[in-house]
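Assemble and predict.
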Amino acid sequence: QKEVEQDPGPLSVPEGAIVSLNCTYSNSAFQYFMWYRQYSRKGPELLMYTYSSGNKEDGRFTAQVDKSSKYISLFIRDSQPSDSATYLCAMKDTDYKLSFGAGTTVTVRA
Amino acid sequence: DAGVTQSPTHLIKTRGQQVTLRCSPKSGHDTVSWYQQALGQGPQFIFQYYEEEERQRGNFPDRFSGHQFPNYSSELNVNALLLGDSALYLCASSFPGTYNEQFFGPGTRLTVL
């Protein structure tokens, strides 16, 4: 079993829809959670960073963490074609490495 | 303000050869991590350098080695290349003492034939 599970999709939504992405994990020591966006043939770009359980909002993006269920989510409101990318969840405990999911490919149709 | 930069952009090598990849961290960052991203997969942690020392290592063989220079830039060396080493190699840097937030460069795409 992988430490971080993420449905690879692909996910296709019409412009303006809400995009819902999620990851599950098995390591209860994880306490820092991130979402990265990666365009084709580019490096990952940090979108959201949260510590422990709870919600965090930044513009059209909302990140949720439920440590009791070992489940994290990212919601993108009013999606735009420019949001078409692969979204990677990442998490870490108190050491230095990030553990990533496989990524979900999202296409927003104009 | 320049972000994380990596060179070269692309590289083609043959099995058994050696390769060196380079990374310059974001201005003000002192910690550099290297990741390997195979096609369709998430990045896998190779190692992290801080104060010119390898601070943590992932599950990669000794063929993978690195170095950090006094100006915080870093190199990743891979010896005896295998076909399975073909991947996007990513460098990430972070602020002093805040290694939770890691900022990635564009990567070097290595193809081993």
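Chain A has no helices and eleven strands.
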